[in-house]
Amino acid sequence: MNLRPLLLLASLTLFQATASASTAEAEARLHSAVDEVVKMAEHASGVSALAESLRPILQKYLSFDAMTRRAIGPGWRQFSKDQQNEAIKLFTTLIIRTYSSKYTPGEHPEITFKAASTPAPGRVEVPTKLLYKGSHYAVIYRLEEAEGWRITDVVVEGVSLVANYRSQFDAPFQKGGAAAVLSSLNQAVAHPK
């Protein structure tokens, strides 16, 4: 008797069960993140207070290391360890400020979570529909399993946050390498829009 088809089927079933459990874990993690952010935003006294209140929550659920590395792109390897740490610190502040500025304290968004997908092992995408201040948005959260499930990108209306910043960092990097990217980040953090 040829056991190969049975072993293949058993392996496939095990993979699907594992992927399903991983997807459920990622979805639960995202729900927790969104709930914590929404609760904090509802009770914030202002945008700058909200940014500081959200910092520990976002640092718990987002992988700023992965986001920074991908936003800078292949040039990341040319950054010294100190430059990488500085870039992560600045990019984290930039994202938290940008994210916080999108909320109006006291406003409550309506979020509908859709079925998650697993584009690759250790990666999950969760599409959502967001109704906020009368406008509808399609938002996809990309999560990866690294030290627990963490958000590594957010795609709003088809625009990836990481890819958007990558296009912004490319020109400074081409002109002046790591120093130019850090200068650009410092400027963005010092003069928020």
Structural description of this entry:
The protein is an alpha+beta fold. The chain is built from 5 helices and 6 strands. The protein has helices at 4-43, 47-61, 64-72, 81-101, 161-190; strands at residues 110-113, 117-120, 123-132, 135-145, 149-156, 159-160. Helix 1 (4-43) packs antiparallel against helix 2 (47-61), helix 2 (47-61) packs across helix 4 (81-101) and helix 3 (64-72) crosses helix 4 (81-101). The protein is globular and about 45 Å long. The protein starts with a helix and ends with a helix.
Please give the CATH class.
Alpha Beta
Which consecutive residue ranges, at least 5 long each, have pLDDT under 50?
6-19
Could you state the CATH homologous superfamily?
Tgt2/MlaC
Structural class from helices and strands?
Answer: alpha+beta
Q: How large is the radius of gyration?
A: 19 Å
Percent in strands = 15-25%
Number of domains: 1
Round the mean pLDDT to the nearest integer and report it: 86
The CATH architecture assignment turns out to be Roll
Rough shape? globular
Through-space gap between termini: 69 Å
In total, how many beta strands? 6
Order of helices and strands: HHHHEEEEEEH
Largest sheet composition: 6 strands, antiparallel
